[in-house]
Amino acid sequence: MNIVHKAGNTHRNADGLCRWELANTPDNPAYVPLEEEPQIPIEGINIADIGTLFLEEVRESYKQDKNCHISTSLVDRDLKNTSLVNSLDEVLNNSYSEGKFQFLMG
User: Which top-level group of life is the source organism from (predicted)?
Assistant: First the structure.
């Protein structure tokens, strides 16, 4: 490839592809400071004190649902108790065997 100099005003406008990229630092004449996101201070922390009556209602709802009762029994006692695991519904039994189970409130 040969580069040929062409004098005159026609070819003095170089496009962005023919120049090396310059770092955006204060040394660069085209430096543009990046805008930082404003730091938002934490104004407070909210801690909820859930009453014992609510927690008792949650415990009772777990006892009324067969699968929840078995799952909480597994967590409270022995996680490897095969008779308890086998008494779960098939879908929950498979999920529990894969290590995927959760307790839902409500």
Answer: Eukaryota
Whether residue 32 contacts residue 24, with contact meaning beta carbons closer than 8 Å, is answered with yes
CA atoms of 11 and 18, how far apart (whole Å)? 13
Q: How many domains does the chain have?
A: 1
Kindly state the average pLDDT of the residues 92-99.
78
Q: Phi, psi at residue 26, to the nearest 5°? A: -60, -20
- pTM here? 0.34
The alpha carbon dihedral of 82, 86, 89, 90 has a sign of: positive
Tell me whether residue 68 is in a domain. Answer: yes
Residue 64 lies in a domain: yes
In whole angstroms, give the CA distance from residue 92 to residue 22. 58
CA–CA separation, 55 vs 69, rounded Å? 15
Nearest by Cα to 82 from 66, 70, 64 = 70
